[in-house]
Write a structure and sequence with these properties.
By secondary structure, the chain is α+β, with helices and mostly antiparallel strands. It folds into 2 domains: 34 residues; 92 residues, GMP Synthetase, Chain A, domain 3. The protein has 5 helices and 3 strands; from the N terminus they run ααααββαβ. A 3-stranded mixed β-sheet has the order 1-2-3. β2, α5 and β3 form a beta-alpha-beta unit. α3 runs antiparallel to α5. It is elongated, with a radius of gyration of 24 Å. The termini are far apart. The model has no long low-confidence stretch (mean pLDDT 78).
Length: 135
């Protein structure tokens, strides 16, 4: 009787492990088929003329510009998490802003903050995109 009880527990345990493994495998297969939301943006960023984060200049002036804009964006608690995470790329005094935000107002706010830091609107390249919350 004791042997039968151990066997049942073993079988139930094995079934649970197997079921979990199959479910996990199915989820991974589904993830592999799902395209990321930003695949079009990623293709755009592969163009040689597009500014990417790795092109951020490391001279003191450009680092300072990026830091000031980032600090201003992060201090604005009215902005969404998306807006707080936009890419800010400074190259020779020109700033490129990239990434999704939740509204046109967020675009305007971030562009304004960048323009305040650079001192000129023509030194800010706005490549932000509005992706409203899908709730």
């Amino acid at each position: 009787m004791h042997f039968t009880n151990i066997t049942r527990k073993t079988i139930v345990g094995f079934a649970l492990i197997l079921g979990t493994s199959l479910a996990t495998g199915a989820l991974h297969a589904q993830d592999a088929k799902t395209k990321p939301d930003n695949s079009a943006v990623n293709k755009r960023d592969q163009n040689p003329g597009e500014a990417t984060a790795d092109q951020q200049k490391m001279n003191a002036a450009d680092r300072g510009i990026t830091a000031k804009i980032r600090k201003s964006v992060m201090a604005d608690k009215s902005l969404s998490t998306y807006a707080h995470n936009v890419k800010i790329i400074s190259q020779d005094g020109t700033v490129t802003l990239k990434g999704p935000v939740r509204s046109d107002d967020e675009v305007k706010s971030i562009v304004f903050k960048a323009t305040e830091v650079t001192g000129r609107g023509d030194k800010v390249i706005n490549q932000l995109s509005v992706q409203p919350d899908s709730k």
